[in-house]
Amino acid sequence: MERQRKISKREAIIEAAIGLFSQKGYHNTRMEEIAQAAGAGKGTIYEYFASKTELFSEILLTGWRKIQEDIPLQEPGVTPVLEQLHRLIHGHLRYFQENRQLTRVSFCEVDTIDQELMEWALKVKGEKEKQVRAMIETGIERGELRTDIDVDIVSRMVCALIPYFASHIVMNDVEIDTHHLAVQISTTILEGIKN
C-alpha cells in the first residue's frame, strides 16, 4: 500500500511538471510550483528527484520509452514495407498528438538536456533510423521498392519528417487525422508524386 501511494505521488509530480514546463517553460518553473500542483510538499519532490534537471530528464526518458513500447516492430518478412512505414509514422504522430504537453516540453526545452540524456536521445534516433533502413532494405530485396534508391537518405527523410509533423501538430495546437497524414507521408515517400 505504501509503495502504491509513493508511485502515485511520483506520477503526480511528473504530471504536474509536464503541465508547468509546457505552460511556463523549464527555466521559469520552480520546484515549489510543481510541488503545489502535485499536491505535495517541496521536500516530497526531493524524495523522488534530486533536482529539477533530474525530474526533467525522467520526463523525457519516460516519454521516449513509451513511444518504443507503443510502436512495436513489425514483422518485416510478412508485412509489406508501405504498411510497416505507415504504422511506424502513424504510431509516432498519434502518440505526439495524444501527449501534446510532453511533446511540447520535449521540443521547446531541448537546450536543457544534459550530455548523458543527449547521448541517449541520439542513440534512440540512430536505432530508429536503423529500423527504417532495415524496412527499406527488405522492401528492395522483396522487389517492393526500386533498387537504385539511397537507403540512408530515405531512412533519414522518414525520421526527419516525423518530428517535423509532430511539431506542427503540437506547436500550432491543431487536430489532425494522424492515420490520413501517415498514409500521405508513407505513400509519397515510397511512391513519389509523379504521374
Write a structural description:
By secondary structure, the protein is mainly α. The protein folds into 2 domains: 1-49, Homeodomain-like (Arc Repressor Mutant, subunit A); 58-191, Orthogonal Bundle (Tetracycline Repressor, domain 2), CATH 1.10.357. It has helices at residues 2-24, 31-38, 42-48, 52-70, 81-98, 100-108, 115-141, 151-171, 178-191. Helix 5 packs antiparallel against helix 9 (178-191) and helix 7 packs across helix 8 (151-171).
Quick take:
By secondary structure, this protein is mainly alpha-helical. The chain has helices at 2-24, 31-38, 42-48, 52-70, 81-98, 100-108, 115-141, 151-171, 178-191.
Shape: elongated
Order of helices and strands: HHHHHHHHH
The third-level CATH topology of the largest domain is Tetracycline Repressor, domain 2
Helix content: over 70%
Number of strands: 0
Strand content: under 5%
Mean pLDDT: 84
According to CATH, what is the class of the largest domain? Mainly Alpha
Features:
195 residues, mainly alpha, Arc Repressor Mutant, subunit A, Tetracycline Repressor, domain 2, elongated
What are the SSEs and their pairings?
Blueprint: H1 2-24, H2 31-38, H3 42-48, H4 52-70, H5 81-98, H6 100-108, H7 115-141, H8 151-171, H9 178-191
